[in-house]
């Protein structure tokens, strides 16, 4: 190790999990950050400050004026320039040892393998579930661990996906979640404080893996809320019918049928998942029902499980139902799409009287 490097990291080396040897190996690790926005601008800077030597930055966006309050790698003069290029310049000025690759591309299934290939770990800075599902599937195929992070308003989530045996992947928990109808940073805002917290925990998880420690959020989903300092960690199990990581994943057939209709929410799209024992019913329009009232009702009347702001799991009519706040429902233990629609309509009927 050069004197310059040792001097630069002289306040990091005393940390119990970073030795001279580990710092040397961190300098050789390639970490990919997908999305250099509210989360990614914090995590990149922190990864460097803890000794990561190689970063791959992926983001196709240009810097906009409204990014500046929370994305501290960018300045007013940078508005209109590519985020990854400005971030690279900023980070290189702060850390002469780092090697940075940039991909100014929209991350999707056509380029995901090329973009992720060769990474030791991936830190999520994305802002939608669709892209995270692509990330999860490709990372699974390449066997690269990744750290999910999400933030909205004053709330945040973190989960570490290692793909080790008997551990859940992102899809095991989030397969029912779709972006349509969910609030976004544009509609609900996002606090810089929660972004910094979520990104810091993501970096801590990544560094734990890279230094040989067990990550603390493997198989666990952390919920944080700065509004009341409530913190909750729920255990997430690997699902034996997961369409990404289960043994059955190879045999999964997904059929979509849209011939169903509800007077309260229009067309119903029914997705038939593996073995025809679990169906997802997606309403075309969100019904006019208050989700918070429904949650209170479920808390009172059912022995269910609340998943923060994402949804609620409960049992009804001998089926297991996962209800999202968009009123998309995943219905398990039904025998046909028709029966899934019957359950969906029955649930709506109950909620309408709440
Ligand atoms: Zn899975």
Outline the structure in words.
There is one protein chain. The protein is an alpha+beta fold and 354 residues long. Helix content is 31%, strand content 24%. It contains eleven helices and 15 strands. It has helices spanning 3-8, 20-28, 40-49, 83-94, 112-116, 129-142, 170-174, 185-188, 192-210, 291-301, 337-352; strands at residues 30-34, 54-58, 99-103, 121-124, 146-152, 155-161, 220-225, 230-235, 255-262, 266-272, 278-283, 305-307, 311-316, 319-324, 329-332. Strand 1 (30-34), helix 3 (40-49) and strand 2 (54-58) form a beta-alpha-beta unit. The model has no long low-confidence stretch (mean pLDDT 89). The structure holds zinc ion. The site of zinc ion (ZN) has 9 residues, from helix 7.
Q: Helix content range of the residues, please?
A: 25-40%
Give the radius of gyration: 22 Å
Task: List the strand order in the largest sheet.
Answer: 3-2-1-4-5-6-7-8
Distance between the termini: 66 Å
CATH architecture call of the largest domain? 3-Layer(aba) Sandwich
Share of β-strand residues: 15-25%
Q: What is the residue-mean pLDDT, rounded to a whole number?
A: 89
Write a brief caption for the model.
By secondary structure, the protein is of the alpha+beta class.
Please tag this protein with its features.
alpha+beta; Rossmann fold; 8-stranded mixed sheet; 7-stranded antiparallel sheet; 11 helices; 24% strand; elongated
Write the layout of secondary structure elements.
Blueprint: H1 3-8, H2 20-28, E1 30-34, H3 40-49, E2 54-58, H4 83-94, E3 99-103, H5 112-116, E4 121-124, H6 129-142, E5 146-152, E6 155-161, H7 170-174, H8 185-188, H9 192-210, E7 220-225, E8 230-235, E9 255-262, E10 266-272, E11 278-283, H10 291-301, E12 305-307, E13 311-316, E14 319-324, E15 329-332, H11 337-352
Parallel strand pairs: 1-2, 1-4, 2-3, 4-5
Antiparallel strand pairs: 5-6, 6-7, 7-8, 9-10, 10-11, 11-15, 12-13, 13-14, 14-15
Helix pairs in contact: 3-9
Bound molecules: zinc ion (ZN).
């Amino acid at each position: 190790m050069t004197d310059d490097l040792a001097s630069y990291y002289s306040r990091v080396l005393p940390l119990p999990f970073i030795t001279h040897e580990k710092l040397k190996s961190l300098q050789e690790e390639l970490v990919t950050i997908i999305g250099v926005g509210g989360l990614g601008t914090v995590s990149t800077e922190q990864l460097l400050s803890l000794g990561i030597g190689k970063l791959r930055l992926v983001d196709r966006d240009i810097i906009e004026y409204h990014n500046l309050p929370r994305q501290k790698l960018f300045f007013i003069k940078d508005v209109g320039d590519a985020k990854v290029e400005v971030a690279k310049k900023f980070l290189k000025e702060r850390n002469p040892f780092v090697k940075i690759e940039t991909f100014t591309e929209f991350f999707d299934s056509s380029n995901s393998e090329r973009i992720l290939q060769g990474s030791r770990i991936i830190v999520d800075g994305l802002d939608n579930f669709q892209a995270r599902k692509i990330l999860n599937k490709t990372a699974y195929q390449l066997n690269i661990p990744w750290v999910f992070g999400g933030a909205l308003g004053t709330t945040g989530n973190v989960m570490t996906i290692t793909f080790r045996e008997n551990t859940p992947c992102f899809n095991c928990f989030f397969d029912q979640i779709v972006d349509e109808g969910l609030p976004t940073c544009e509609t609900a805002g996002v606090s810089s404080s929660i972004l910094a917290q979520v990104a810091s925990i993501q970096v801590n998880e990544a560094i734990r893996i890279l230094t040989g420690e067990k990550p603390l959020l493997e198989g666990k989903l952390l919920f944080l809320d700065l509004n009341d300092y409530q913190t909750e960690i729920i255990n997430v199990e690997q699902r034996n019918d997961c369409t990404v990581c289960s043994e059955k994943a190879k045999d999964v057939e997904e059929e979509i049928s849209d011939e169903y209709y509800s007077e309260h929410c229009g067309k119903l799209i029914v997705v038939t998942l593996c073995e025809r024992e679990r169906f997802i019913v997606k309403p075309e329009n969100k019904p006019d029902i208050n989700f918070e009232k429904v949650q209170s009702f479920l808390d009172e009347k059912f022995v269910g499980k609340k998943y923060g702001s994402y949804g609620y799991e409960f049992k009804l009519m001998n089926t297991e139902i996962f209800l999202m706040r968009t009123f998309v429902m995943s219905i398990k233990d039904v025998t046909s799409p028709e029966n899934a629609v019957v359950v969906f309509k029955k649930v709506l009927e109950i909620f309408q009287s709440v």
